[in-house]
Design a protein that fits this description.
Elements (H helix, E strand, L loop, with lengths): L6 H10 L6 H12 L5 E4 L3 E5 L7 E4 L7 H8 L1 H13 L5 H18 L2 H8 L8 H24 L6 H9 L11 H26 L8 E5 L16 H8 L9 E4 L13 H28 L35 H13 L11 H9 L24
Parallel strand pairs: 1-4, 4-5
Antiparallel strand pairs: 1-2, 2-3
Helix pairs in contact: 2-11, 3-9, 4-5, 5-7, 6-7, 9-13, 10-13
């Protein structure tokens, strides 16, 4: 017979924690009512939504997938992984990888033909990339041409898919048959370009909102990338963005990272009734998570307090063999740290892939008044890509 707790004990349990009118839920509602005019920011994997409080309507910005150039620059970035992945498939006996390689070659050639300065300048038209359109055209042409050429040769000469050869001559670019620009540099550049755009626009929007950062409540909701990613301050790319936008006034203790929290589409918030219900739901959720924190401070004030640490950032040098957190990039030429970040986001299932290129770009935007033209980009600013055959 399956165990069932005694109903009298269950009633006692429910009176504090689980019944709709329980002591815990009542306190959460009252705290929410008492702070209903405090601003609340909802951050999802694609949008920032600010509920200013006091019944005022929300505002939002799309900082990722709905933005110009994201898919284009990311598609090119992925070519740095496509060749090694195909090489691994070949090692595992997947003979269909030759067909896939030929299809990838063909698509690279199509993109080469379509790629042009006018496309990046006039159609994609990313303001943070203004002045870089010719170099982006060169980077895209070079990456597609190099990928296609390498795979064409590899189909006839499997030695090119040996990982030692591939690493030296394509990825690292320091082997006897090295390509002109390593794919490490190309991937660093494409990550940095994507970060430059999203960070610039997000910072601009946040600065325009006149946020009361000291009172701001934050919910980072839903997933972003892998289901296991972005669950801590250090591994979630939105946390440092908000902290820098606030001028370090944001209280990290008021930031809740909750993949299980519901998300909304900004278009839905145009409906005032829906918007009001959503805001009430998020405020209830926030206090449902943090009302216990407020109570712990008044119950046990003389005991050690919890403090969220946000400064656990290792520095990589020539002797570093292992890191347990995302390392800091100290300069645009700090290649060991830049590539270590690429490895880190792929190796740690808790890391968001996009964080690989964000820290160094964010630091510069913050220091330079959010002016993208003053930002140096790893793998791009001091690198010369062969001029595209068609501009």
């Amino acid at each position: 017979m399956r165990y069932q707790p005694n109903p009298h004990f269950m009633k006692l349990f429910e009176m504090f924690t689980s019944a709709p009118d329980s002591i815990g839920h009542t306190l959460q509602r009252r705290l929410g009512d008492a702070h209903s005019d405090a601003p609340l920011l909802l951050a999802t994997g694609t949008d920032l939504v600010l509920f200013p409080g006091g019944g005022r309507p929300p505002t939002s910005v799309d900082f990722r997938k709905g933005t110009r150039g994201f898919f284009e620059i990311t598609a090119v970035s992925h070519l740095g992984l496509a060749v090694p992945y195909l090489a691994r498939l070949r090692e595992l006996g997947d003979f269909g990888c030759k067909k896939t390689a030929r299809e990838l070659i063909a698509q690279c050639r199509v993109v080469q033909d379509f790629n042009s300065v006018s496309y990046w300048r006039d159609e994609v038209a990313v303001s943070a990339w203004r002045g870089h359109e010719e170099k982006i055209t060169d980077l895209v042409d070079y990456t597609c041409a190099t990928t296609a050429d390498y795979l064409e040769r590899a189909i006839g000469d499997p030695k090119l898919l040996n990982f030692e050869y591939l690493r030296a001559n394509l990825i690292e670019g320091d082997g006897p048959d090295a390509v002109p620009v390593s794919f490490n540099d190309m991937m660093a550049a494409t990550f940095a370009l994507s970060a430059l755009d999203s960070l610039h626009r997000s910072l601009k929007w946040l600065h325009e909102q006149s946020v009361d950062w000291a009172r701001l409540m934050v919910i980072v909701a839903g997933g972003a990338g892998r289901p296991s990613a972005g669950l801590t301050w250090q591994s979630n790319n939105l946390c440092p963005l908000l902290y820098e936008a606030s001028g370090h006034r944001l209280d990290p203790a008021k930031v809740i990272i909750a993949p299980s929290a519901p998300t909304v589409e900004p278009e839905q918030l145009a409906d005032r009734e829906f918007s009001a219900r959503a805001e009430a739901q998020y405020r209830k959720f926030w206090y449902g998570c943090l009302s216990s924190a407020e109570m712990s401070r008044v119950i046990w004030p003389g005991y050690p307090a919890f403090e969220k640490r946000i400064d656990q950032v290792p520095v990589v040098d020539a002797d570093t063999r292992v890191v347990d957190a995302m390392p800091r990039v100290r300069s645009v030429d700090d290649k060991r740290a830049i590539v270590t970040r690429l490895r880190y986001v792929m190796e740690d299932p808790g890391a968001q892939i996009a964080t690989a290129g964000m820290q160094f770009v964010l630091d510069q935007l913050s220091a330079n008044g959010n002016r993208p033209e003053l930002v140096e980009l790893p793998g791009f600013t001091h690198i010369t890509y062969p001029v595209a055959s068609r501009r």
